[in-house]
Design brief:
The chain is α/β, with parallel strands linked by helices. The protein has helices at 17-33, 52-65, 86-100, 115-128, 186-196, 199-210, 239-260, 285-299, 305-317, 340-349, 358-361, 364-374; strands at 7-8, 11-12, 43-47, 68-73, 105-109, 132-137, 143-145, 152-154, 164-170, 175-181, 214-224, 265-270, 331-332. It has a seven-stranded parallel β-sheet, with helices on both faces. It binds 1,4-dihydronicotinamide adenine dinucleotide.
């Protein structure tokens, strides 16, 4: 099969296995080039391990600290006439690279919200790995079947209270237009909190604790986003922001649980806005990211997922001293994004962006190439004319 990108709105419905492997390898090379992180994680469970921040975390743990990693993810394998989703190929590439480096790597593909996947994970960790010292919660999902009630909760990306109008971009067509999003209903808010809030993270930690699989002093981290005022109505003060507040509530409870268990800790890391499958679905945010990339690349401070997580490990979690926390008890990996000078430049460009000025004033090209890389397209050294087998198995 010769695979080409087929972009439909904010998704690409094809993925390239060789390109995905090259993308994973780029991240491994980045971590290795920074040398080992001493006192890093030894045994890590990553929930949401196949793409974006979760994959980068798994790579940093394995190739920066020699950690054994167990990854939970939800991806679709290839079918007769269509390739798999990128996380499927990424996971195969990661496992192959980890094993050839002599590292334990196991992954489970299934719904992390379900009791069945939690139980299977617990059993595999008990049988093969023993207690974990790091649990990373990096799920981004549009829906959750609640394990107790069976209710299907669907998350929405909407403002709360008032309608929100702002510019947005169709990243594929390069068209900038105004979008007005009506406020979420109470039910939609509750559903979004059920999907992207902290309850499932707590259920994971309880399952691991009950099974005796948390090492004394274990750490757990989940990822959040705050961003600038221009995106607050849709992010921080919107349905997803309320879900992230709930994630912070869960962090405090899990922190107390881990503290009582050999002085472990749990916390939220607020990360930078980056092109991932999850962020591309949020209105307005891809346009903000395109402007942000332009400003940060010019300033020389741009980072991707792997740079962010390498920095989280090296300068915060495993730096030999305590975490530097903000007033809300969060780690701020978005510090460079939120620098006043960066935000001043973004705010100055924002009103000038139109379809006509998009290419000049924003890094829409960089956005597009990062987006295609998520699906394994546009990687240096990959022969995209080659006929390749899309049916890879773990
Ligand atoms: P992503 O879409 O790249 O990754 C999501 C991961 O979750 C994938 O591995 C996917 O397989 C897995 N997943 C989704 N549903 C699942 C399910 N039911 N069962 C098992 N696995 C499932 O997303 P991204 O952007 O890396 O997001 C991860 C976290 O980072 C989220 O909490 C997000 O809010 C946060 N974050 C993202 C930022 C961004 O700009 N992309 C910025 C700051 C925080």
């Amino acid at each position: 099969m010769i695979l080409r990108p087929k972009v439909r709105g904010f998704v690409c419905i094809t993925a390239h296995p060789v390109g995905c492997a090259a993308h994973v390898q780029e991240q491994i090379d980045y971590v290795r080039s920074h040398g080992p992180i001493s006192n890093g994680p030894k045994k890590a469970l990553i929930i949401g391990a196949s793409t974006g921040y979760g994959l980068a975390t798994r790579i940093a743990a394995a190739f920066g600290s020699g950690a054994a990693t167990f990854g939970v993810y939800y991806d679709r394998p290839s079918e007769e006439d269509r390739p798999a989703t990128p996380g499927w190929y990424n996971t195969i590439a990661f496992e192959r690279a980890a094993r050839s480096a002599g590292l334990y790597a196991r992954s489970l593909n299934g719904d992390a919200f379900s009791d069945a996947i939690k139980q299977q994970t617990v059993e595999a960790i008990r049988n093969e790995l023993g207690a974990v010292d790091l649990v990373v919660y990096s799920l981004a999902s549009p829906r959750r079947v609640h394990p107790r009630t069976g209710v299907i909760h669907k998350s929405v990306l909407k403002p709360v209270g008032l309608p929100y109008t702002n510019k947005t971009v169709d990243t594929d067509l390069g068209i900038v237009s105004d979008i007005t999003i009506e406020p979420a209903t109470e039910q939609e808010i509750a559903d979004t909190v059920a999907v992207m809030g902290g309850e499932d993270w707590e259920l994971w930690m309880q399952a691991l604790q009950t099974a005796g699989l948390l090492a004394p002093g274990a750490t757990s981290v989940a990822y959040s986003y705050i961003g600038p005022e221009v995106t607050w109505p849709i992010y921080r003060n919107g349905t997803i922001g309320l879900a992230k507040n709930d994630l912070e509530r869960a962090a405090r409870r899990i922190d107390a649980l881990l503290d009582a268990h050999g002085h472990g800790r749990a916390f939220i890391s607020v990360n930078k806005a980056l092109v991932t499958q999850a962020s591309s679905a949020i209105p307005v945010v891809p346009l903000y990211i395109s402007v942000l990339y332009k400003v940060m690349k010019a300033q020389g401070t741009h980072e991707g997922c792997i740079e962010q997580i390498q920095r989280l490990f090296a300068t915060q979690m495993y730096n030999g001293s305590s975490l530097a926390l903000d007033d809300g008890g969060r780690v701020r990996l978005d510090d460079r994004e939120m620098q006043p000078e960066v935000q001043r430049q973004v705010a100055a460009l924002w009103p000038r962006i139109t379809t006509e000025t998009l290419a000049e004033l924003t890094d829409i090209q960089g956005y597009r190439s990062e987006f295609l890389k998520l699906f394994g397209f546009g990687l240096a050294g990959v022969d995209y004319e080659a006929d390749i087998d899309p049916h890879l198995k773990l």
